[in-house]
């Protein structure tokens, strides 16, 4: 299965790209080479290769979720430019 000029034009239109004639020709050749390489990879026997979603084994690196006391409300509000009745006071953004 080769890449045609029409395929490149279609993908460019989907991506909202305006390509010159030279670019269409160049990308047609480049995409054809990519598909040719992928077809070579499809010839490999992968029946004994387990499916994987990542090449390296990953583990959760997050800390344990512990309930801890938070900072006092007055201390947090002391950093705010303005506060009112125990809340941050900000400008109205919706009219």
Structure description:
- The chain has helices at 5-14, 21-42, 73-77, and strands at 83-84, 87-88.
- It is mainly alpha-helical and 95 residues long.
- It has a domain at 5-42: Histone, subunit A, CATH 1.10.20.
Compact description:
The protein is built from three helices and two strands, in the order αααββ.
Name the features.
3 helices, 39% helix, mainly alpha, elongated, Histone, subunit A, 95 residues
Distance between the termini: 57 Å
Strand content: under 5%
CATH architecture of the domain at 5-42: Orthogonal Bundle
Radius of gyration: 29 Å
Order of strands in the sheet with the most strands?
A: 1-2
Number of helical elements: 3
> By helix and strand content, what is the structural category?
mainly alpha
Note the run of SSEs as H and E.
HHHEE
In total, the number of strands is: 2
Report mean pLDDT, rounded to a whole number: 89
Largest sheet: 2 strands, antiparallel
Helix content: 25-40%
Shape assignment: elongated
Report the uncertain regions: none
CATH class of the domain at 5-42: Mainly Alpha
Briefly note the CATH topology name of the domain at 5-42. Answer: Histone, subunit A
